[in-house]
Amino acid sequence: MNNEKKPLKKFSKARKWLFIILAFFLVFIGLNWPTNYYIEMPGSAVSIGQFVKSNVKPPSNFYLVTVSETSQPATVWEYLFSFTQKHASRIPKTELLGGSSSSQYQELQNWYMQTSQQNAIYYAAKKAGLKPKLHYKGVYVMQVLKGSSFKGKLQIGDTVLGADGHKFHSTEEMISYFQKKQLGSKTIINVVREQKKINFKGKIVKVKGTGKPGIGIQLVEHVQVETKPKVTINAGAIGGPSAGLMFTLTSYEVFSGKHLAEGHKIAGTGTISPSGKVGMIGGVDKKVVAADRAGAEVFFAPVDTAGMKKSASNYLLAKKTAKQIGTKMKIVPVRTFDDALHYLHEKY
Predict the structure, then answer these.
(1) Is 31 helix (H, G, I), strand (E, B) or coil?
(2) Which residues act catalytically here (predicted)?
(3) Measured between alpha carbons, how far is residue 270 from residues 106, 167, 170, 256, 279 in Å?
(4) Pair 111, 157: CB distance under 8 Å
(5) pLDDT digits (tens, 9 = 90+) for 82-134
(6) What local confidence, expressed as pLDDT, does residue 208 receive?
(7) What pTM did the predictor assign?
(8) Any idea where the domains of the chain sit in the sequence?
(9) Residue whose C-alpha is closest to residue 253's, from 45, 71, 52, 1
């Protein structure tokens, strides 16, 4: 009788271990299951001089600041662990990507970066008293809107050159051309994709937001700047438009020959327009932390709140974060490039 119980005991023990292994396996799968959130954390401060090419040596004391972001939706483990990180944020997938895929979002950030660089070079050259030339190349497709007859045809990064045999010479000309057409009328647009010219057929639709006829795309002007001396910027894998202000400061020093705050580490953020206006960005609190860790003395923060509540100002959030971390770094509000330039002239 005792002999009969031993096999049962062994079977029970084996079943127990099987249950434990299965439980560990399920926990492992569960913790690595993707959530619908991306995690953002402070990134790093990077000297812009290494990205700028010119026959004039660029300064090395201006820094762009990045936000570290998971490339894919965070796993359950990453999501839970982020709560132990003081400056981590959990961004809903729909809020970050909209209707785009992860790859489309990255492509979008690349195009924003290129536009930012062109705006920076153009305005810096103009501010330095030079006469930069803008060559219109068309418009970048940033997003194909819901309801557009070109959805599934156009891709992010395509450049629209013209339509129906007409070549556009400005974004305003393109928008005006489509707005004059009847809703539902047919049109053929001419596009460049990966250096190949392609034609797409579609119809004119009512554009959401404006209520006017159009082809239903979110766009940004594709221009190329020509300057003497020649200046180019290549930030590699860094994307987005938020380094515009710092690109402009670096380019301005190259064009003007003036030394701005030489020997002092200056960081900052903000988009730049062709007219020198500094625009709001995301993740400014994380950028303040990254700039402080890198030993920056100054951090420029956009203060423009057009269309937003004053409390949404990048500058106010940057000041709040600086106080929380106890940094000695000076947070400087800027609305325009001139604000940053004036501060550097006065301080250094």
Answers:
(1) helix
(2) 242, 287
(3) 19, 33, 25, 22, 5
(4) yes
(5) 999 889 999 998 888 776 778 778 888 888 898 899 999 999 999 999 999 98
(6) 80
(7) 0.80
(8) 40-67+110-132+227-347, 134-224
(9) 52
Strands (DSSP E) contained in the chain are 37-47, 52-53, 62-69, 89-92, 133-144, 159-163, 166-167, 186-193, 196-203, 205-206, 213-214, 217-226, 232-233, 266-268, 271-272, 278-279, 298-302, 330-334
Among residues 250, 221, 261, which one has the least CA distance to residue 123? 250
Structure tokens at 49: 């001089």
Tens digits of per-residue pLDDT, 302-330? 997 555 555 568 999 999 999 999 999 99
The number of helices, as runs of H, and strands, as runs of E, in the chain is 9, 18
Q: Among 261, 242, 241, which Cα is nearest to 252's?
A: 261
Active site residues: 242, 287
**CA 185 – CA 182 distance, rounded (Å):** 5
Residues in the chain: 348
CA 25 to chain centre: 38
What is the fold of 40-67+110-132+227-347? Ribosomal Protein S5; domain 2 (3.30.230)
pLDDT, residue 3, reads 54
Cα–Cα distances in Å, from 222 out to 4, 157, 245? 83, 10, 19
Q: Determine the CATH number of domain 134-224.
A: 2.30.42.10
- The answer to whether residues 306 and 80 touch, using CB atoms and an 8 Å cutoff, is no
Contact 215, 202 (CB under 8 A): yes
